[in-house]
Amino acid sequence: MDLAPKQSKPADSSVLKSTAESRLKNFMHEVTGRALVMMESATHNQQGIAMDLVQEAFISLHKSYADKSTEEWYPLFYTILNNKLQDWRRKEARRAQPFSFFRKVSLDDDEFEVQDVVDESTPNPFEFLSQAVTADEIQDAIAQLPVRQQQAFTLRAWEGFDTQTTAQIMNCTEGSVKTHYHRAIQGLRAALSHLNPNLGGSSK
């Protein structure tokens, strides 16, 4: 009788691959809609570009992080997506400015932070802006915000990331996230106040 301890068989690589692909399919089903809304707003409604950015982010996620848990995928995916968006924006800025490849292209004002901004909560955007405002009206108002304000608001209010995680995804300081988020809330309330007077023009 063989008394030697039995060695557990390593999981078959094809099974692991199939499991990862199944998880990715479910993950894509869950986040694609919101990610596309974010990218369409950030690219001024260029739906083809938005779809390409989202698809490229999914491919990179699966290629580099297939072994990570689904929960870990959320910040990783949005970090990859943010990087691809910023690369696209830099290319567009250089295309619009001849010889700009000789100098650094500045896209945002992350270095400017409003001091003493309260770290506001992450409300459900529909509760925050009242049932009197439709999803399309919210989306249109978000699209009018500067890109970094769009990102800060959607990552916090829609995806529910905290300030620290949002800062990591956006590759900026927590102070910048607070500033962008604070201004986004002010901008949305001002843009939608004609639809619901109770919103007012301030987040205070």
Brief write-up:
The chain is mainly α and 204 residues long. It has helices at 13-42, 47-65, 70-96, 125-129, 135-143, 147-158, 163-170, 174-192.
Describe this structure in words.
Residues 47-95 form the RNA polymerase sigma-70 region domain. InterPro entries: RNA_pol_sigma-70-like, RNA_pol_sigma-70_dom, RNA_pol_sigma70_r2, RNA_pol_sigma70_r4_t2, RNA_pol_sigma_r2, RNA_pol_sigma_r3/r4-like, WH-like_DNA-bd_sf. Belongs to the sigma-70 factor family. ECF subfamily. Residues 136-185 form the RNA polymerase sigma factor 70 region 4 type domain. It comes from Acinetobacter tianfuensis. The protein is mostly helical and 204 residues long. The protein folds into two domains: 15-99, no CATH class; 125-199, Winged helix-like DNA-binding domain superfamily/Winged helix DNA-binding domain (Arc Repressor Mutant, subunit A), CATH 1.10.10.10. It is 63% helix and 0% strand. It contains eight helices and no strands. The protein has helices spanning 13-42, 47-65, 70-96, 125-129, 135-143, 147-158, 163-170, 174-192. α1 crosses α3 (70-96) and α3 (70-96) packs across α7. The longest helix is centred in the first third of the chain and has 30 residues, at 13-42. The protein is globular. It starts with 12 loop residues before the first helix and ends in a 12-residue tail after the last helix. The model is unreliable at 1-11 (pLDDT under 50).
